[in-house]
Design a protein that fits this description.
The chain is mainly α. The protein contains two helices and no strands.
């Protein structure tokens, strides 16, 4: 095996890996978990806002006592 053949086989291996990853990431089985992860950012923001509002209301209550 010469160097050119080895490079060609390596290129085919990388291409096959790329195709496998693309098929895996766009499969219907993965769509629901990817959507859940994508929407988790918004859930964390909402929880942070609620915590911040709770802290503000507690501080106001403590100041009034």
């Amino acid at each position: 095996m010469d160097y050119g053949t080895l490079r060609g086989l390596f290129a085919l291996l990388i291409l096959a890996l790329f195709i496998i990853i693309v098929i895996w990431s766009y499969s219907k089985k993965r769509k629901s978990s990817f959507d859940e992860v994508a929407n988790s950012i918004f859930e964390e923001d909402q929880q942070d806002k609620e915590r911040h509002l709770d802290k503000d209301s507690k501080q106001e209550t403590n100041n009034n006592v």
